[in-house]
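Submission checklist for the structure archive. All mandatory fields must be present; incomplete records are returned to the submitter.

[x] Identifier: (4Fe-4S) cluster-containing protein
[x] Organism: Slackia heliotrinireducens
[x] Residue count: 488
[x] Sequence attached
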Amino acid sequence: MAILYNTDQNLRERASSCIENDFKHNAIETAQETFYVKRGQLVEEMPDWEIIRDRAAAIRNDVTKNLDFYVKQFAERAEANGCIMHYAPDGEDALWEILGIFADHGAAHAVKSKSMMSEEIGLNEVLEQAGVDIIETDCAENILQTAGDKPSHIVVPALHFDREAIAELYRKKRGYEGSSVPEEITHFLRSILREEFLAAEVGVRGCNFAVAETGSTTLVTNEGNGRMVDTYPKVQIILVGIDRIVPDLEALDTMMCLLPRSAVGAKMTAYFSVDSGPRKPGEVDGAEEVHIVIMDNGRHTLINTEFEAMLRCCRCGACLNICPVYRHITGHGYGSIYPGPMGIVLTAALEGYDNLGGMPFACSLCGACAEHCPVEIPLHDLIRQHRINMVEEHKNNPVEVPIFKGLELMWSNRAVYGTAMAAGRPIMKALADGEKGAMDESSAWIPIVKGWTSKRDFDVLAPELFRTWFKKHKKERNAGSEEGGQDR
Ligand code: SF4
Ligand code: SF4
């Protein structure tokens, strides 16, 4: 699996380099605010939003509980539609199936539209190694492919590039000679891609939802490229995660009510395709041969665990768009192709705790992500559960153990608390900047506090405990009342 792509650095190292990148912050802040406002307006227009969320969560739960039934039903109906089915228990199986399709057709040229499953299994790299020229046709994915970079968001993957950087990239790597005006860059990209669509023998794409009742696959995009990948090449490969299945068209309607609104704050995306098999006699376009690769890749292992709810996810990205931690450490801070709240839960559930570098601790447990999730996944609870599991399995940072034991002792015992406060005050005062009355970056040499003081000030403790002040104040007030004969 290729879900984690930066295991050389831990969370702190990844986050530090992202925190220092002002452009990334500004881009994410602007995107979060835009999506937040637009989504909020649309949700307000729908008084039954919460009812639809409940319904969607129930639909997705039903699919999880009866997953084998729905996968079988989808496969049978898709086959009856003329599709060729491939079932891949894990990423390696999927890669072999796909390589086999390319080999059978002697194909060396493919176009592709956005697919998180393909990222998950590292499809591009494997095809390239096998001598296949595969080109990303989604604008953002093409930028990432050209730059050799990883996505920083699951819906808007090149969020960390501005137009100057994109223009420069295409100048260096693809012979672009134009300006940084977005329309000009898009026009250039379009002219390249038209040739690619015409030359490609195989089209590879993902699938937002697979409808069990009809054996159909769907594609939800804002660029026309997905539809061209779908219709131009003679051979079509569609990657379907087993968690993409919905029972019927009515359920699809419910999900489509939520997906574009939650993802980009739009009632509907520019393109929404429902495909049911290869081109039929008399039809003017569409692939002549359609292969559907249904991939499990670890999803089954989540069933009947505390993380089962994660299988409800429809990859809308709304949880990323609201998360304050994502805003600061950006998508690359997580080191996973699935960043943000859903990324923490899914990555840890699929990959285990060994190489996360502390990812589940990139969360303040504020719960905003769960409130925004259209399928009501309790993301903050699941993140907390990962932390509990990590502590129980001794996979957390060992330095934390004595620190939290000490804090537990201090906060559970009044005498210890009082002693610690009394001892801590003069120490902090001695280390603080006298004028500010706070420890600042000059204290960043102290290992235990540097994570805080290197970025912001840490006020010294108040001159006395609140309890001491209160007792004194009460005594003075009582004395005053007795003298004045008042009782307030
Ligand atoms: S609970 Fe954690 S992951 Fe969710 S929005 Fe808050 S900080 Fe982000
Ligand atoms: S966890 Fe919820 S909000 Fe986040 S991407 Fe999945 S469906 Fe969307």
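[x] Structure attached
Curator remark: The first strand starts at residue 84 and ends at 88. Residues 322-325, 341, 363-369, 379-380, 383 surround iron/sulfur cluster (ligand 1) (CB under 6 Å).
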